[in-house]
Amino acid sequence: QSALTQPASVSGSPGQSITISCTGTSSDVGGYKYVSWHQQHPGKAPKLMIYDVSNRPSGVSDRFSGSKSGNTASLTISGLQAEDEADYYCSSYTSSTTLVFGGGTKVTVL
Amino acid sequence: QVQLVQSGTDVKEPGASVKVSCKASGYTFIYFQMHWVRQAPGEGLEWMGRINPNTGDTKYAQKFEGRVTMTRDRSTSTAYMEVSGLTSDDTGVYFCTRGKPTGYFDFWGQGTLVTVST
Predict the structure, then answer these.
(1) Tens digits of residue pLDDT in B55-87
(2) Which of A37, A44, A55, B40 has the largest CB neighbor count within 10 A?
């Protein structure tokens, strides 16, 4: 199972919106509504930000939103803040009943 | 509150095995699958596999088939992940994480650093 494809880095100024893409195949991202996104700060465990494509867990800011079109899922962060600077990983359920992560995207707040 | 507490840092020589534990509390252990995720130094997250704590059924990523064994002890609500035949490529942080039915992870352990070195 190959890793999902994410851009290595995305940057934006405070207050701006950024979008991170996550591209897979019809056997994972495109085949199921089971894409999730995690945020990871250095030295910390990942934190769930979005699940089942577009659902936010309790306590996660509504500045984070998710969507999917075909084989590509997206995470949008609006009103970018300094605390959003972190690594972001998408993951998807697959047709092999396994899970697969994306390679990760480093978000920099300029 | 849900907590996953993992065993501490470990250092192993090449060829050895390592067993990492993950003690769950704050929920009914057998109701949720437990997954294991590895992160090599400076690298991304890598799904290793999962175990159904109720039945003991496992599913491993193809890359780890035959070298990783996941087990559980229902009496202590603890999941275990053992890697055999360690090489320097196995150096990294190993996380346990609770899996929901649609495959997302809502709670994570603090991570266990395993270093493989002579």
Answers:
(1) 999 999 999 999 999 999 999 999 999 999 999
(2) A37
- B44 and A38 within 8 Å at the Cβ level: the answer is no
Q: Which residue of B has its CA nearest to A56?
A: B106
DSSP string, chain B: --EEEE---EEE-TT--EEEEEEEESS-GGGSEEEEEEE-TT--EEEEEEE-TTT--EEE-GGGTTTEEEEEETTTTEEEEEE-S--GGG-EEEEEEEEPTTS-EEEE---EEEEE--
Q: Which residue type is seen at B40? A: A
CB pairs under 8 A between A and B: 66
